[in-house]
Amino acid sequence: MPKISKKLRIGRTRKIIVISWPFFLALLVFLSIQFAIRNAKMVEHYYSIGIYPFIAKFFSSFSNLISFSLWDVFWVLIILMIFIGLVLVLFKKLKFGWYILRTIQLLAVLYSFFYIVWGYNYFRPKIEKRIGWESPKADEMIFRPILDSIILQTNYNYIFISYSDYSKIDSLIEESYRTNSPELGINYPNGTRRPKTMIFSSFFAKLGVNGYFGPFFNEIHVDSYLLPTDYPFVLAHEKAHQFGITSEAEANFVAFVICVKSGDLRLKYSGYQSLLLYFLKDASHMKDYKEYLNKIDKNVIQDLRFRQKYYLGLENKNLSKMQTAVNNAYLKANKIEKGVKNYDQVVSLVISWYHNSNNY
Question: CA torsion sign, 345 to 327 to 186 to 152?
Fold first, then answer.
């Protein structure tokens, strides 16, 4: 009898461990996040600079061997598994309680894994503090000459970009990252980066998503519907995420610097044109806004008009609104206070860059 009771106790203990370990792990991650929020410098030193580069190298060295997106396939399998489980519950092949428990366990593991392999980067110091910049106050006297400079450079670097340029563009962006990483506080090489096409490009084009970073496998994705003019900037943006830059404004800023500090006109034009759109949006309230528009060359204006018409033609407004709402909630949950408006904050970062680097 004592032996049987001992086996029962061991069996029950094992059962409790099997059931509870995902929740225990998720709890530890949650508590560590609360600590990380209050200790950004420690996150930077121990995780972003210390641990994450090894994680990035490990996962990217594996995922880069495979041409298709592991991230896309992974989520299809997860959704299918949850759906099949629900069908089996409806046909009484699985117990409802068991199904719910396993689903919550899975979500707890995914939550923990996300932060362990990349998500803690959300809590590192902002780029101004990492680099040691002085942030100038928002002022039209500073904004106007920079807008003029961006218009001038966009006009000057105008060039036609072709789909056949993509391979060369990728290597040029890598070279620019290698050269400019010290200025941007980036830990280069941080593994390897192989751009992959989204498996569901048509669907994401309807959402208005041009690219994304898959943290579970350290993968960079671009949409096959992306215009060649946008390709260098979007690719540089997604690579910034792979380097542990989580803020969308910071990723936009890094993409801008990487593009415009390259010696290649294709990268320069993509970088300046992309930032021109953000600056024009901020300038739209100014009384002399039209005067700035008149400074833009006809070729650039044609590109911008075609770009707007092209992406609006792909976009599904309802799906896009839903995606924006989800992304907004996701960003705010990870302490990006402005949510999707964070993308637009790239303007202030670029102004800081011009101010601190004397790039007027």
Answer: negative
Cα–Cα nearest to 22, from 116, 100, 106, 99: 106
Top pLDDT among 240 and 337 is at 240
CA of 76: how far to CAs of 114, 201, 212, 274, in Å?
17, 14, 16, 32
Supply the pLDDT for residue 343: 61
Distance from C-alpha of 56 to C-alpha of 239, rounded to nearest angstrom: 12
Question: Which has the closest alpha carbon to 52: 192, 247, 193, 190?
Answer: 190
CA distance 124 to 115: 13
Burial 165-179 (b: 16+ CB within 10 A, else e): bbeebbebbbebbee
Domain locations in the chain?
2-122, 130-357
Among 86, 173, 78, 150, residue whose Cα is nearest residue 346: 150
The torsion angles phi and psi of 228, rounded to 5 degrees, stand at -55, -35
pLDDT tens, 136-155? 776 788 899 999 999 999 99
What residue ranges in the chain does DSSP mark as E strands? Answer: 195-197, 211-214, 219-222
Among all chains, which residue has been given the structure tokens 């890598």? 174
Longest dimension (CA), the chain: 92
Tell me the residue type at 152: L
